[in-house]
Write a structure and sequence with these properties.
In the C-terminal section; belongs to the class-I pyridoxal-phosphate-dependent aminotransferase family. The protein is α/β, with parallel strands linked by helices. The chain is built from 16 helices and 17 strands. The protein is 42% helix and 13% strand. It is globular and about 60 Å long. The model is unreliable at 81-88 and 451-456 (pLDDT under 50).
Length: 456
């Protein structure tokens, strides 16, 4: 753990200089496979850099397959027999970011241009640039609640909040419900943003065993009795990363169990609008569910908007205080645009176009990866690819990275051991279907090549 890289003679941003030094030291043998690396704080202190820079460097190293993070143990050099590439490569096709595609039919850029023009003509632009009420004004919340009500029958002005993205909502909810050291239950593989928020709140995440339909009721009951959790966190529709959508029967069983035990549910509904057939937990268990309906995966992450239904008005006030403390407010111009889209139903047209494009990209993936084992959802933005022997996830990620393809290994999502030998492949970030097919063709050829090492 005494590794201290030399950065002064390297060009570029500090975080990339750290990654470059790590790459070279692995290739030269200075760092060996499985070696324990310094903690983020230790390396930041030794290099005289801020913690954020080192954290970004470690995240990039993990993305490139150079390192592995083990829950509760730290960061290690990946168990790979391949020589690392001395020079950093910027992926030509970054399939690591789970973005919604932007089809021409959605016309988001055009709608933004026309919307801002209309706001300016109406003399409302100045108000958009002022401070807003945390959680939204009563009028704004009522308009959002009206739009949500077909999916969330209990949505009303006293229980709906507008937050600057689900990440802010998650942190505010966790800080409201918990104290340091408390337990939050989740799936064994979960959204990395939850892991980050739980780390800031100093909470313990405990994974609940799952099957192809989501968390197992018996395992959930045992975890509730053993750990006395403060909440259960789920991405129940098009789960990130496994793509599982919990069927209604399983949802009802989970909701009944939470109700009997008085355990709140944090429902991350990032992908729910892509699958209108899925019944939200907030419609089954409204008095215990904190449901965050994000626009990041069904419209655009740049809007930085999430609509949150909470159990009651008191919780709405407390969560609003958390929003004020952490982010102050939403971005006024983005909120004004979105409210216009809600009123003229443009938002429904945007979501429908993105849903249709996602479906077409899933068909491309099915064609390109025919014969390979992976999981998907017909309207989802990603696939969950099980890697064949002799590939390890680290070797495969490093291999395709050298070919210009960025993917994410399962370790990024892991809460518990063992970690599956799989990667997430995002289909939405590619600029076009042709670009996506080219990238998937490289992945398929790599899977067939069998150039990896034996899994250990």
């Amino acid at each position: 753990m005494d590794w201290v890289p030399t950065l002064n003679d390297r060009p570029g941003p500090a975080y990339l200089r750290i990654v470059e030094a790590l790459t070279e030291d692995i290739a030269s043998g200075r760092l060996r496979r499985g070696q324990h690396l310094p903690t983020h704080r230790e390396l930041a202190r030794n290099l005289g850099l801020d913690l954020t820079t080192v954290t970004r460097a470690y995240a990039e190293a993990k993305k490139r397959g150079l390192t592995i993070a083990r829950v509760g143990q730290g960061t290690f050099v990946a168990e790979s027999r391949l020589q690392a590439t001395p020079e950093p490569i910027i992926p030509a096709f970054d399939l690591s970011m789970n973005l919604p595609p932007q089809p021409a039919d959605a016309d988001i850029e055009g709608r933004i241009t026309r919307g801002i023009g209309a706001i300016q003509r109406e003399g409302a632009l100045a108000a958009c640039l002022n401070y807003l009420e945390p959680g939204g004004s009563n009028d704004e919340r009522e308009r959002v609640a009206t739009w949500l009500r077909p999916r969330l029958p209990e949505a009303d002005v006293d229980r709906v909040l507008i937050t600057p993205g689900t990440q802010n909502a998650l942190l505010s909810i966790l800080l409201t419900l918990t104290s340091p050291g408390d337990v939050i239950l989740t799936e064994p593989l979960t959204y990395p943003g939850l892991k980050a928020a739980a780390a800031i709140a100093r909470l313990n995440l405990v994974g609940v065993a799952t099957d192809t339909h989501g968390p197992l009721p018996d395992a959930l009951e045992t975890a509730i009795q053993n750990h006395r959790p403060k909440a259960l966190y789920l991405v129940p529709t098009i789960h990130n990363p496994t793509t599982v959508t919990i069927p209604l029967r399983r949802r009802k069983a989970i909701a009944d169990m939470l109700d009997r035990n008085g355990i709140p549910l944090i429902e991350d509904d990032a992908y729910g609008l892509l699958d209108p057939t899925a019944v939200p937990f907030a419609a089954l268990l409204p008095h215990l569910t904190f449901a965050a309906v994000s626009l990041s995966k069904c419209v655009s992450p740049g809007l930085r908007l999430s609509f949150v239904q909470v159990p009651d008005a008191e919780m709405a006030t407390r969560i609003s205080e958390g929003v004020r403390a952490s982010a102050q407010m939403t971005t006024g111009l983005m909120l004004a645009l979105t409210l216009r889209w809600i009123e003229d139903r443009s938002i429904d047209a945007i979501i429908a176009a993105i849903r249709d494009e996602a479906a077409e990209r899933q068909k491309l993936a099915a064609k390109a990866l025919a014969g390979h084992t992976y999981k998907s959802h017909p309207q989802g933005h990603h696939i969950w690819l099980q890697l064949p022997r002799p590939w390890t996830r680290f070797d495969f990620a490093a291999h395709v990275h050298r070919l210009g393809i960025g993917v994410v290994t399962s370790d990024v999502f892991a809460v518990t051991e063992p970690v599956p030998n799989a990667i997430r492949v995002a289909l939405g970030a590619a600029k076009s279907r042709q670009e996506l097919f080219s990238a998937l063709d490289v992945l398929a050829a790599s899977l067939r090549s069998g150039a990896g090492n034996r899994i250990v």
